[in-house]
Specification:
CATH topology of chain A: Alpha-Beta Plaits
Strand content of chain A: 15-25%
Protein name (chain B): NAD(P)/FAD-dependent oxidoreductase
Shape of chain B: globular
Largest sheet of chain A: 2 strands, antiparallel
Strand order of the largest sheet of chain A: 1-4
Strand content of chain B: 25-35%
Radius of gyration of chain B: 21 Å
Structural class of chain A: alpha+beta
Distance between the termini of chain B: 31 Å
Largest sheet of chain B: 6 strands, mixed
Oligomer: heterodimer
Number of domains of chain B: 3
Strand order of the largest sheet of chain B: 3-2-1-7-21-20
CATH topology of the largest domain in chain B: FAD/NAD(P)-binding domain
Organism (chain B): Nonomuraea harbinensis
CATH class of chain A: Alpha Beta
Keywords (chain B): FAD, Flavoprotein, Oxidoreductase
Helix content of chain B: 10-25%
Number of helices of chain A: 2
Order of helices and strands of chain A: EHEEHE
Largest interface: A-B, 21 and 30 residues
Domain Reductase C-terminal (chain B): 321-382
Shape of chain A: globular
Structural class of chain B: alpha/beta
Number of domains of chain A: 1
InterPro entries (chain B): FAD-oxidoreductase/Apoptosis, FAD/NAD-binding_dom, Reductase_C
């Protein structure tokens, strides 16, 4: 799995951090997403997929495979 | 409940599309149909009053998913076809051309319709902003450099005023509340937002009621307040709230009040669910009925609806969340920061225009707000609200 984030679309909601704190964080200054792990391990895949699904800015892209 | 062999989702905006995606992600292999009144691929609404209206984004950029992703969903996507009637017991949806579609389960995701003011229909130059067509028409009008009057002091009205000021327009905002966003964030933060707009050059008429429109040859030329004051305008945006789009559900057998009445599982009837802005659900944690008009609710509720469609028994117990961007200010709220609550600053400093605050009612934290402090607000949500 490869994760890509689009900072321009990110609204800083932090939903992704709530779901997968090992993969996503937020910048202190403006809350925009910080990708901690672009190729997360399998045990995190479900959480990352859910984070992409609930992201209100549709800013998280998950490439499977 | 056995897994439905066919699921029909009425409404293909954020809530409907997210439900479809969640169903597939959870392994649903049955027939999936999405029906939407608009003849556009599903798009996102928050950018309409901001990036799209400002002209920073082309409409296509607000599309929720690209064509390849939509195809991978393996769903029949029927666009440009409104649902006009529903029979809940038969789970039968009638569309605008009279065709009836039946499914084992139906998901209602028809969202909202903007409220209108008397006299605005048929009057050129008066806009609402709910869909992409509205945004494109308003953007084109604003490009002509009109004087703009925004009616409504809520989130949408304030965002439109901010965007229009960014375009250099002459903007007046009139609203019945005494501060901007008073209902959403209370008088203190609302007052700060009001001052921000005044500093940025928005003329404010708050605590004001609109008496009617003034027009010239079918085109709007101004807005008349009940005080008698005339606000001259070549363009007017009416942002006085929305109503759940449930007209097509009259006589369906469903309970309609403030939207589609659902239980804590977002179920409106046997095999019928509602999701997103249109759904009024029982929140088991807050012990009250809620209907949330925000973007996050659309996708979060979709996850629960999809799971329950496939046999789970999950109550929907969200921490409500919304954000708004105005000028260089990003406000985020978690929970229910009601106007009655007591506000206290937890981090940062309002005078430095960067702070996070807690809302308390009866000693309990009920809401968190961040003003240019998104991460800190989220951390407070986790420590104080979760």
């Amino acid at each position: 799995m490869k994760v890509v984030v689009d900072e321009d679309s990110c609204c800083g909601a932090g939903q992704c951090v709530l779901l997968a704190p090992e993969v996503f964080d937020q910048r202190d200054e403006d809350g925009i997403v910080v990708l901690l792990d672009s190729e997360p391990g399998e045990e995190r895949h479900a959480a990352v997929r859910e984070a992409a699904a609930v992201c209100p800015g549709a800013a998280i892209e998950v490439e499977e495979g | 409940m056995t897994t439905p062999r066919s699921i029909l989702i009425v409404g293909a905006s954020a809530a409907g599309l997210s439900t479809a995606e969640a169903l597939r992600r959870l392994g649903y292999g049955g027939r999936l149909t999405l029906l939407d009144a608009e003849a556009r691929l599903p798009y996102d609404r928050p950018p309409l009053s901001k990036q799209v209206l400002a002209g920073e984004w082309e409409p296509s950029r607000a599309q929720l998913r690209d064509v390849a992703k939509l195809e991978a969903l393996d769903a029949e996507l029927i666009l440009g076809e409104p649902a006009v009637a529903f029979d809940a017991e038969a789970r039968a949806v009638t569309d605008g051309s009279g065709r009836v579609r039946r499914a084992d389960a139906v998901v209602i995701a028809t969202g909202l319709a903007p409220a209108r003011l008397p006299g605005q229909d048929g009057l050129s130059g008066v806009h609402v902003l709910r869909g992409m067509d509205d945004a494109v028409a308003l953007r084109a009008h604003l490009a002509e450099g009109p004087r703009l009057v925004v009616v409504g002091e809520g989130v949408l009205g304030a965002e439109v005023a901010a965007t229009a000021r960014g375009l250099g327009l002459d903007v007046t905002l009139a609203g019945m509340g005494h501060t901007l966003l008073g209902e959403q964030v209370g008088a203190e933060v609302g007052g700060m937002l009001t001052r921000l707009h005044a500093e940025r050059g928005v003329r404010l008429r708050l605590g004001a009621e609109v008496a009617g429109f003034v027009s010239d040859g079918g085109r709007v030329s101004g807005v008349r307040l009940t005080t008698g004051e005339l606000l001259p305008a070549e363009a007017v945006v009416v942002a006085v709230g929305c109503r759940p789009a449930t007209g097509w559900l009259e006589g369906s057998g469903l309970v309609l009040g403030d939207g589609v009445a659902c239980d804590a599982r977002c179920r409106a009837a046997d095999g019928v669910y509602a999701v997103g802005d249109v759904a009024s659900f029982w929140h088991e944690g807050l012990h009250r009925r809620l209907r949330l008009e925000n973007r996050t609710n659309a996708t979060e509720q979709a996850q629960v609806v999809a799971a329950n469609l496939l046999g789970a028994d999950r109550p929907y117990v969200p921490i409500p969340y919304f954000w708004t961007d105005q000028y260089d200010v990003k406000i985020q709220t978690h929970g229910l920061p009601s106007p009655e609550a007591e506000l206290s600053v937890a981090e940062g400093d309002p005078s430095e225009r960067r702070f996070a605050a807690l809302y308390r009612e009866g000693g309990r934290v009920t809401g968190v707000l961040g003003w240019n402090m998104a991460k800190q607000a989220r951390l407070l949500r986790q420590s104080a609200l979760a």
